[in-house]
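Reader question, answered in our methods column.
A reader sent in the components of a multi-part assembly and asked whether the whole thing could be modeled at once rather than chain by chain. We filled in our standard form and ran it. Here is what they sent:
COMPLEX SIZE: two components
ENTRIES:
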Amino acid sequence: MLILECPCCGVKGEETEFAPGGEAHLKRFGPGSSEDDFHAYLFEKENPRGVHFERWRHANGCGKWFHAARDTLTLEVFGTYPAQTAEPPKDIRDKIAARRPGWRWREFS
Amino acid sequence: MSEAQSAMPGAAFEGAHTVRETGLCGMITLRGDLGASAMAEAVRDAAGTAVPGRREIVHEGASSVAWMSPDELLVMTEYARVPEALAAIGAALKGAHHLAVDVSDARAMFEVTGKPGAVREAIAKLCPVDMGHDAFAPGQIRRTRMGQVAAAFWMVDEGTIRVVCFRSVAEYVFGLLRDAGLPGGEVGLFG
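And here is the structure of the entire assembly that came back:
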C-alpha cells in the first residue's frame, strides 16, 4: 500500500484517497513547438524501476495537486512537496541520496 | 413555492450503532483567502465563529464552520438562515476575490450515534482513516472516501459522528452506514 502525506492539508492517507497525475516536472510543448518536442512531451515519459517523481491529487480530500517522490519498486515515499515548484526541492533530493546513493532521474541526481 | 426536502427524510437504522438522516441543513461553500481579516469578519457575521484552523471544525449555537481545503470553508447553519448568511458574507467580502454559494440542496447529512467505540468502528469500516482515540477526536474534520464516494465527517462528541456527502449518493452512503452496523459485524477494535 502506498501511503502519501498531502502537503496542502497534512492528511496522511492511503492511495485510494488520491488520484495519480503522471510524471512530475514536465515542460509543456504546445502550439508553435517543433514536432519532435511535441512528440517527446506527449509520449516520452519516464518509467523507472526505482526513484520516481509524480504528480498526485488529493481527490477525495482537499482536492489539491502536489508532488511526490517515491520508489516505484518498494513504494517507499521519500517525501511530498507543493505543486508550485519547478524541480524537486533540495531536502527531498538529499533524502533520496541518503536512501539511494547514486540515483538519477532525468536531469536530477 | 415548492417545499424543500432533504435527501432521505426520516431514514433511520438501529443496530450496533444508530444512523439517522438529519434533515434539512443550510450549507454554504465559501472560498477565498482564509487568512484575510475580511474572511474572519465574514465567518463571524455568518456563523458567529472564528475561522477554523487546518482540518478543524468550530461550532457556535446551531452554526458550524469546517475547514475543507487551504482556500475553502463549509459554513453550516439553519436551512432558512442561508440567504441571510450569504448576504452577510457578501457584505463582509465586498471587493475581495471570493466565492460563496448555497449548496444546502446538493448535500445530505447523516448522524451516527452509539457507544464511543461503535461509532468509531462504523467509520473505520468504511473509510481509509485511522479512527484511533489518539488519531481522531472531536473538533477535527476529515474529508475522505467512504466506500466508492467522497464524504466528510466529524465527531460532535465521543458518541456522535456526523457525515456529509453529495445528495446524489445519499442512499448509497446510508446503505454503507447501515450495513456497517448490522448484527454480527461488531469488531470491538476501539473498545
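What stands out: The helical segments of chain A are 35-43, 90-99. Chain A has a mean pLDDT of 94.
Send us your own complexes using the same form.
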